[in-house]
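In practice, a research group might receive sequence data for several interacting partners and want a quick structural hypothesis before committing to experiments. The following worked case mirrors that situation: the sequences arrive first, and a predicted assembly follows.
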Amino acid sequence: MYYIRDPIHGFIEINEWEKTIINQPEFQRLRRIKQLSLSDMVYPATNHTRFEHSLGVMHVATQMFDNIVKNEMDFLKNKLNYTESGLERERILIRLAGLLHDIGHPPFSHAAEELMPLKPDSVKDHYEHEDYSTAIIKNKFRRYIDESKFNDLKITADEVCDLLTKGPTSSERAFWRHLISGQLDADRADYLLRDSYHAGVNYGRYDLKRILRTLTVINEPETDNFSIGINKSGWHAAEGLIIARYQMFTQVYFHHTRRAYDNHISEAIKTLLESETKRSTFLPPTEKNLDEYLDWDDWKVGGLIKEGKAGLHGEIILNRQHYRRVYETKEVPSVGDLKEFEAISGEFKDRIGFIDTAEKSWYKVGDEDILISEEKSDSKYAPLSQYSSIVRNLVPNKQIRIYVPYENREKIKEQIEKYREEI
Amino acid sequence: MYYIRDPIHGFIEINEWEKTIINQPEFQRLRRIKQLSLSDMVYPATNHTRFEHSLGVMHVATQMFDNIVKNEMDFLKNKLNYTESGLERERILIRLAGLLHDIGHPPFSHAAEELMPLKPDSVKDHYEHEDYSTAIIKNKFRRYIDESKFNDLKITADEVCDLLTKGPTSSERAFWRHLISGQLDADRADYLLRDSYHAGVNYGRYDLKRILRTLTVINEPETDNFSIGINKSGWHAAEGLIIARYQMFTQVYFHHTRRAYDNHISEAIKTLLESETKRSTFLPPTEKNLDEYLDWDDWKVGGLIKEGKAGLHGEIILNRQHYRRVYETKEVPSVGDLKEFEAISGEFKDRIGFIDTAEKSWYKVGDEDILISEEKSDSKYAPLSQYSSIVRNLVPNKQIRIYVPYENREKIKEQIEKYREEI
Amino acid sequence: MYYIRDPIHGFIEINEWEKTIINQPEFQRLRRIKQLSLSDMVYPATNHTRFEHSLGVMHVATQMFDNIVKNEMDFLKNKLNYTESGLERERILIRLAGLLHDIGHPPFSHAAEELMPLKPDSVKDHYEHEDYSTAIIKNKFRRYIDESKFNDLKITADEVCDLLTKGPTSSERAFWRHLISGQLDADRADYLLRDSYHAGVNYGRYDLKRILRTLTVINEPETDNFSIGINKSGWHAAEGLIIARYQMFTQVYFHHTRRAYDNHISEAIKTLLESETKRSTFLPPTEKNLDEYLDWDDWKVGGLIKEGKAGLHGEIILNRQHYRRVYETKEVPSVGDLKEFEAISGEFKDRIGFIDTAEKSWYKVGDEDILISEEKSDSKYAPLSQYSSIVRNLVPNKQIRIYVPYENREKIKEQIEKYREEI
Amino acid sequence: MYYIRDPIHGFIEINEWEKTIINQPEFQRLRRIKQLSLSDMVYPATNHTRFEHSLGVMHVATQMFDNIVKNEMDFLKNKLNYTESGLERERILIRLAGLLHDIGHPPFSHAAEELMPLKPDSVKDHYEHEDYSTAIIKNKFRRYIDESKFNDLKITADEVCDLLTKGPTSSERAFWRHLISGQLDADRADYLLRDSYHAGVNYGRYDLKRILRTLTVINEPETDNFSIGINKSGWHAAEGLIIARYQMFTQVYFHHTRRAYDNHISEAIKTLLESETKRSTFLPPTEKNLDEYLDWDDWKVGGLIKEGKAGLHGEIILNRQHYRRVYETKEVPSVGDLKEFEAISGEFKDRIGFIDTAEKSWYKVGDEDILISEEKSDSKYAPLSQYSSIVRNLVPNKQIRIYVPYENREKIKEQIEKYREEI
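A structural hypothesis for the assembly, expressed as tokens:
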């Protein structure tokens, strides 16, 4: 056993097998991808990386798994016919999926996702980082998974990938996916606490220990699907998680300056892609493209920006001369607000640096809901929004913001003010 | 007033003038210099930068100054003839000195200090980052200090630099320097808390609030010098600071893997200097050299490493294949221990990757001591080591370690064991 | 200056004058009144007292005051004609009001408030602890306020009391009251953080530093009243405070076991009042009654319970054999839910221990709202609920619970289940 | 399983059996015994109780046990012939011993230990709280241990007591005692963190997680005894524990005002014993005396003080008019210092309130040392003091202080000053 010090979870335990995986260059690359892109331009201490987050997700996913097993042993054994070694197998899979779930992230995390190519035969669906993750796991990590000398239970890279994808499945055991990707997953559980810690803010915290203790498996009788949920006694803790996410979104993730840099870094990488590869997007996630894709990390991008190859947006980043927000709608714009925005964005089209909309952000308030069960492992359940008036009334943020170059900010702000009075 | 969120101090307040200085490219560069070099290879969350530390030092230095003024107003006014505006002037100077004290750091902080050139006419004295700091302040920031429109009190860049240098001075007011550089300075006060927080360890904390409350000015009657000290009632807090430093040193700063990467990154930068500039050191800190010097930051180094230009040590860094410690002396080696080391290092000369000694480290247990005063502003005082048996008995760490390349670690370790038995 | 260590605020500073007040027996008595009554029966570490809370309120109220002065100096000087010494005077008053606001609390804090007598000529209005606070300040502390040798500015006990009462006032300066009692007061600001800390929970935290920075004075043009509000840039921090309170309410203050002990201790004190004074209530807050009233503290009550004088409820408290909740409505009961409760409470009348309703609790979600100002000190403002969909949709908790004696809990629970199926 | 919220450890898990024990009146009494006596007179937030500490010790002892089992499974099975159920049995025993180790504390914790009677046939050995603990376990808890329906492994109360006593034992398994009482025990591990948290200080923290990970069993070859120790890689964490204790001692436990109240409360309880029982000590820990002994708790003492039955010292406590320190030696007095003290204490005999010596305190720096093992479960080991110069040079605090009544403090202080100059 090895132990890695982590400010969020104390020590993260890894075994010999996992250490082999972590030591691969493709995994070490995550040390060079900042978790929150350039948010350090606003919150200077947010320099944490996908590396520490990935360890954290593995750790929390394991805690979730262990608690479900503890809480629902009878159910798992009797209803789902799990044996001890069957559970041990799921545990290994979930740990690997947690560890590798972000392995396909482009430089500067989400900011560069806009530069992913279209999917074949599609005019609007782009690849996402999950597609790169699964491609990398299957092509680069298969030998360290399927062929590992530690692999007594014949785990496969494909199974790990199954836990990361959203496609259909006939498996009764597909509900474990929710631990990696869902309203109550280890990814979110980790990043909220971690981002909050590094930003140094008082929100983003929630009662992880109580959530762990009240995790359960829910049987939806109509569909006979299984799902991860929370026992009724923990519904306030689940509500707390949603609130934590809401607060981090409004005050950190969607901070107007942070969003400016999401745009600048995305533009800068686009320029660099063009200068280095003569393309304006990354290559699709096929085996032969992976080495080129993986070569892109924050160090490469940072080095090229320093060389002056990223043009205007590179300069802006080096000197923190970001575009300034000169106009924004309310968080939930009315029809009238949207009309006003349309008018302004039309009128000032030539002077606008870029327009940012919360909806475009990777970070959305989902339609999904957390299931709350009345009784252990029972089919009596209801969505959290039925319990919580806060969750029920949370409105997705649809704020739109207009940014202009630094040097024009005052002039254009004034012009917009004037224009608003006229219309 | 502007407020920057900081996980250590809550919010750091800056004024319009300071904002102008922070916005200069030379200062923004500090965002691209990691405070603890590659210590994230051991403590993955230690990705913090000189930028946030510099803000923190300004903040703590101000708190120290304000508390001394509060505690010693009579003394400052009557003995040192300070007026209100005289104190205001010192306060501005101390803030600027705190803010700019690290402006001359090379990439990856202390690791690259070994690559600084010799001073003129010297065969062993190298420039240090402080020399670059003062050169940069005088050449790059003079116009934002001396000529600033906010500079009502005719502050000069030279005065700021005076607070950063250790040379002789006839000024009665020279004791303020101790707030920036000394056993009890704002630099140390900030980095211990900050490094501890980001590493996620339980030590490195101490009672800053009590230190602030017991800060005082001490008049050394023999020399008639003034000095910053602590009132007797706070001596345990001062002892706590020394203990915090000791614990951070032994467990974080001098961690054997961390020290390996200090060596690797230093070697890598040396290779890069050679390939990019045909020199194996940085240029001396003269006006015409500063732009080249300042161009070196972590992004440039990282980018060049990614391009493969840093040779073996670059590869080691990218893939975390550092040299391994195969032998080390005790923390305080005896004469016999040192003899054994000499024998081994002679015998294995050709197989050794590098030798690291705690003494060579930037981080030393100093000879200096903290002064404890019996009475306020009085000349009755004694060094902390007279109060504290812990401080009195702290022994400088002189551990020596031998590292070898990853692939040979087991073989050589065995050979050394065998050799030790023979001698 | 004296400094008292506080886990929430670090050090709390008090001056010589305040120390005199704190040293009075009436103030030392607050050391013997637990802040959260018997909530340690659920959260074992919540043994904190009104003493530390009172210091905390003084401290936070001062921070709020100082920040408003910093943020709104022009407004205070020009619109409200404040001089330096006028502001200094308000500051002293606010500190004293914060310090003394809870001086009239009965034993075990809110639990015993039900035992306060009716006001003269009223059949339903009881005295509240604030009435005792003002009586005690006027009768016991006048000599340490009005006649204090430190009282250069002729502060009066009556003025301190003015800040604690809700009655009408013609004073333009009445808005300072909001710092002691209001949606955004120092009382709440302190107890949320303090109760959360001692309970060891992750909620109850909010961004006090940001609230401090965005505090402002709002001029309501219709009424020409002044009010304390928050600048628009801090509305999410204000929302965070409301959320913190909501979470503490649902999970700590209104915890079903905690509420059981509120009932038990209230009954126990009632029994003790009867046995010791032949009355079932405290005496009204008149001068001659105050000594008797002040004699009641947790030590006296605890001692009498130990002597066996508090009857059944005393025994229950000593041995933690509280009544158990056997039925409860939803947090927001529908008409049907209320009908069901009525039927059950009628049917089981003779078997019920007691009924608890959230509405009866001292802790209510108020009708008031926090004012958010568009511009500094301006008359353009809107309530927080217009900004925040969470605040807008918060529904007052009206849950009703039925408790029965420990030994009958299972039998009656079953009977109620059965009865519910029948009706 | 039940879960109790704890600010130090998150949640403390208890099972049905342990819950039965916790629910006994003798255990509930611990809620009414403050952990740090009247230290809230200095650190107002230190109102925590033996109840929460006892849960904490059980929790930490379990963590220690589990880690030793994890680290040393081979050793335990092969050298000590443990079976799975044998280990399970030790675990239950250690949990119960941790839970009940303080069950015999008198009111206000250590302060009243001076009032324990002499042991039979001894003129200087007093009973200690451990003697009461074992008597209470054997007489009051036997039926909830030996006869419990949950007791599948035939645990006995006597075995639990064995873990709490220091007497000789022939058992190879006696080393488990060190988890409850020793240099590295769960008692200390918990109280340092808990007292530090409630006091709100920055020291008293140490690296519990690393200690847990490096716990080991050491075989002392000369004696063939077993002992609990720390692997070499954790020696800095063990040193950190000793430092934490040192700092808590000097700044919290031995704070001069805190020690004054230890004396006052001890005197007050003595007065109460005399008035209530006509004896000046508690009764010896025999079966028939236990009910009377257990009747004494903080509530009883507090109630009697409030009734005025505790005389002068009771009044002093109610109004915080404690005796003041007018003289003290250095922490490590020289022979000359001791002579001076003797002279002063002779001269001022009639005017002295009381004399306090650090040596008399329950809290001593022990002779014992922590064992550090070179290899896992090996017989190569050395004491921590050989590794750590700090531990090696820690000097026991032998400070002596003279206190006088509040009203005479200035006069006597002056007289002592004068007298010192004369001698």
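Before designing any experiment, note the following. The interface with chain A takes residues 3, 10-11, 209-210, 213 of chain D (CB under 8 Å). The longest helix of chain D spans residues 50-78.
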